[in-house]
Amino acid sequence: MNQTSVHSSTLLAKFIPRNEGHSCTAKALLSFCFLLIISIVSQAQDSLNADTVKKVSYALQGRLVSLVSTANDYSYLPKEKKQRRIKIITATNIIGYSGAMVGLYSAWYKNYPQTNLHSFNDNKEWKQIDKIGHAYSAYAESKASMELWRWTGIDRKKRIWIGGMSGAFYQTVIETLDGFSKEWGWSWGDFSANILGSGMLVAQELAWDEQRIQFKFSFHRKFYNDPVLNQRSNKIFGSSTAERFLKDYNGQTYWLSANLKSFFPKSNLPAWLQLSVGTGAEGLFGANENIGKDDNGNIIFNRTNIKRYRQWYLAPDIDLTKIKTNKKGIKVALNILNIVKFPMPSLEYSNGKFRLNAITF
């Protein structure tokens, strides 16, 4: 599978065909649903700003210690309030994810033959863009979950480990469903990518208590002059922009964006400036080769003349969370949008050549 899903997967299944690129839909949707949850929590956080950003004095060993609680620090909440919030988030995770899995099973697995747990090797498919999609989805889910647990005020390391590894856990459950499905199977490559994505978030939180290197995503809709290629794309990736956004590996780019000020705190660099390295692929009209077959094994599409290749990008970026604003709605929007790469000029290396792009999505 590629990215991740929720209740809406049942509805989307009506117009998203199950084919070579089907699985990314499921995982992408679950990522964005969890980010939707964090937006609600973010609003709650903002509503607390006026009360939480205050000095609180405690007598400790005969000395007065002044502590300042920020909008993102809930460790000083009363025990009763912490326990209440822990129950809320626990229930949210159990009910929400259980509902998501029921919807996913009904939409994707129920009507297809089941078998014993088995694995298959898909590591060479789609130029590994689907694997990067797995890592990204796990990172995004873990980030959202960790912020939910931050809101409860639990211990820092508990919050990091419980929330930070949530993405890998969520996707591993889906990977297990794949493993019992005759059509697919457990993929060790997918599992490893899930662990890598969540591990990237956890490692940075433990080391720096912040995400200095952020995982981001961008997309551009692909159109071709050749009608045969457009037809093939419609068949394996879907015809609507929503389907292409989730499934078209030729239009997806994944980025690692480093916040320069975090690494050079004494510099005069703006806090919002990031440097991004991105990767994508081109010429993918089949999982392993550009050949399509019907149910009887007859070749109905053969474009092995089209080269399949990776693309690499270097570009500036904007860390939207560093933009200062007192507007609650804007803060929520910036927090969500920061998992998406801001369109900027880029230096591209692909097909053995460098070229400058005026703007890259």
How does this structure look, described?
The protein folds into 2 domains: 1-42 and 97-204, no CATH class; 212-361, no CATH class. The two termini are 24 Å apart. It has 361 residues and is α+β, with helices and mostly antiparallel strands. The chain has helices spanning 9-12, 24-47, 49-52, 79-109, 129-152, 156-164, 166-179, 188-208, 227-237, 241-247, 260-263, 328-337, and strands at 55-60, 63-68, 213-219, 252-259, 273-282, 291-293, 299-302, 309-318, 344-350, 353-360. The radius of gyration is 22 Å and the shape is globular. Helices cover 45% and strands 19% of the residues.
What is the typical, i.e. mean, pLDDT? 80
- Per DSSP E runs of 2 or more residues, the count of β-strands stands at 10
Q: What proportion of the residues form beta strands (DSSP E)?
A: 15-25%
Order of helices and strands: HHHEEHHHHHEHHEHEEEEHEE
Morphology call: globular
Helix content: 40-55%
Give the number of helices. Answer: 12
Q: Spatial order of the strands in the main sheet?
A: 3-4-5-8-9-10
Give the number of domains.
2
Overall radius of gyration = 22 Å
Structural class: alpha+beta
